[in-house]
Specification:
The structure is a homodimer of 413-residue chains.
Chain A lengths: L3 E7 L1 H4 L6 H12 L3 E8 L3 H14 L2 E5 L10 H9 L3 E3 L1 H13 L6 H4 L3 E3 L3 E3 L8 E6 L2 E6 L3 H19 L4 E8 L4 H12 L5 E8 L3 E9 L3 H15 L3 E4 L4 H12 L3 E5 L5 H7 L8 E6 L3 H8 L3 H7 L4 H14 L4 E7 L14 E8 L2 E8 L4 H25 L1
Parallel strand pairs in A: 1-2, 1-3, 3-8, 13-14, 13-15
Antiparallel strand pairs in A: 4-5, 6-7, 7-8, 9-11, 9-12, 10-11, 15-16, 16-17
Amino acid sequence: MRKKAVIITTGDEILEGLTLNTNQQYISMKLNEIGVEVIRAVSVPDDLSAISRAVKEGMEDSDFVIISGGLGPTEDDLTREAVAKALGRKLSINGEMLEEIRNRFRRRNIELSDNTRKQAMLIEGAKFLKNDVGSAPGQMIEYEGKVLFILPGPPSELKPMFENFVVPVIRSKIKSDMNVKIYRFSGIPEAVLEEAIHDIIYNNEGIKASTTLDGFIGPTIRLTYSRNLEEEIVKIEKEIVSRVGEYLYSIGDKRLDEVVIEELLKLNTTIATAESCTGGLLSAKIVDYPGVSKIFKGGVVCYSNESKINLLDVDEEVLKKYGAVSSQTVEKMAENVSRKFSADIGIGVSGIAGPTGGTEEKPVGLVYIGIHFENATRVFEKRFSGDRNSIRWRAVYSAFDELRKILLSRKKG
Amino acid sequence: MRKKAVIITTGDEILEGLTLNTNQQYISMKLNEIGVEVIRAVSVPDDLSAISRAVKEGMEDSDFVIISGGLGPTEDDLTREAVAKALGRKLSINGEMLEEIRNRFRRRNIELSDNTRKQAMLIEGAKFLKNDVGSAPGQMIEYEGKVLFILPGPPSELKPMFENFVVPVIRSKIKSDMNVKIYRFSGIPEAVLEEAIHDIIYNNEGIKASTTLDGFIGPTIRLTYSRNLEEEIVKIEKEIVSRVGEYLYSIGDKRLDEVVIEELLKLNTTIATAESCTGGLLSAKIVDYPGVSKIFKGGVVCYSNESKINLLDVDEEVLKKYGAVSSQTVEKMAENVSRKFSADIGIGVSGIAGPTGGTEEKPVGLVYIGIHFENATRVFEKRFSGDRNSIRWRAVYSAFDELRKILLSRKKG
């Protein structure tokens, strides 16, 4: 029998449609991965009795209740009170929590307000969960054999706390033999991938397959199975690799950009970027990775023609003859940026992200990606669909993917 | 008294975290726009008793229940049955609906399967709602003075049906005069803001105030009120502006970056960026804005000392003496990048985003922001908390906010 969970997300902003409930999706996905069945997800406003009722019902129906939001210092942050009320427990200031919050404020040179003290209120019998990102600590309460977790609403705070506290506790409480394997693809449409491996991933007794689209990168296939089917999974995996291996950039949690950067770190190969339409998204994504300074030399955001000429020595004639969005221009951008920064690899990106600026010959969505590496410059012409944001992100991940393939072919060759 | 609604979204894919629940957000936003208060949003799996229970509870607590999903032809499409069960009503094939579905299939040359007949099942006393996009019709049921709407799950089908059927019916049932005003702040902690204006925004009859944190920018206050209180709102707004006006960057929907970029466009003032720890996030955020090429000249991502020296002419002596993360270095970065790109404004950002690299003197979270404008360079020292990602984004929005204040003071001066 799978253990059951109820997810409660609180906040007027959810019920007013101002915030998309990504926390619910994240928690659902994570709970499913460790074999817990989510039987209900409910969103309630910042209202004491509504939250309290949701908590009561959740505790009645399930083994685990995860509640997020309403831990801030303001009047409408009522989660602590509501949970205490639902469980019939007291709420009081916890010295350790108060000290923790006080220190955080001291570091930022802000005085502790009376309101903020509220964040140090601990429910009777609860354990407090440290928040490394924000000021609101979480709480964990065991109650009649069930466990309730209170987590802050901001995703950047909720996610690490879910990983650090919720997952280990739940794993220790259940003896799940469920496992998940994740296959991440790039450069292949979801429908084409499905068709290519449909017969091997579906209809296996005890193995559940699902496909999702991972941001602007590509499709992801998730196989959920009990551990005794490990051999079966090895067979399926071999078949996946043999049929669509060239698009498979990672087995597991690693994202495309991580895979590429880790390879560069391993090879000790340096890189520099020259970006037009992506405007710094590519370099910013590279800098996401801590410790990347060993291989990332820097970049130029050459949004204007002027800057392409002055900072990257792109020939004015080339720009005039072929335009800023052309194979010839990105070729020069890639070559020259690698030289300017003395980097082994230079990447140039130029395109038309829209919504305006497209022509019949060069429509919105046309993007050129140039990669200079080992005395050769390859240029890739791409046509992306979607709005300005989608086109720019697709260009970024496409650049990572082309670089991945170049590094891979070099390895093989 | 505002009318109340409950939203029920059905489907295993939501509870397994495979689908982000955008329908709930859409319905919430639409209902709020017409003055209906959403008191609960619940997601349940494809399970007869779970759906039925959610419907029963929804009808008890609210005036309108909107339920989406589970209208397809397959085994796990149970919404019709569950609603009939919850209301104690019969379910039977409706000739008109069957004909409608039959025609749709004929047009696509697909034979009508037995399963598909299921989609023609109408709940006793219900009105069927035409679906122009997909094969599943919706239903509307009036029950003890309340109204329940059943809509299909795919957003492309749900949205037009919501506009065409749900909005007019609800509008005719209520006489809404609700309005919303949004106040966006930056550079002030939520708790401090609350304390400063607590007495004026809360406890006003007929005015509801709520505070949320808007990403890495700052707190947002939302006042919901009936239109006859417009004068009262003007008074509150005046008081907000007088007390915390310097932190208030926008009244309405505009985000901090938009406010700043629109001001630059209006002034026809050009800008260039020099980024170290933010790695291109600032320039990428500027390029988010379509048509920004008029004022954005470009940027340099000078992640290495080498690039600070070679591309931005930062004096090697300055770097050696004060370090890459110092007031002196960002001052030069800001000045030199404005000169390099011939931009009116130059912004330099350098800091320690972590997780490693901090020292006692220069801890993780220390960020310097330099703004060069009209022959003066101002440098701001910031100490941010949070993880690498949070620190970098806080630095970006802080740069926008300092620039906003400089432009504002210039206007006043």
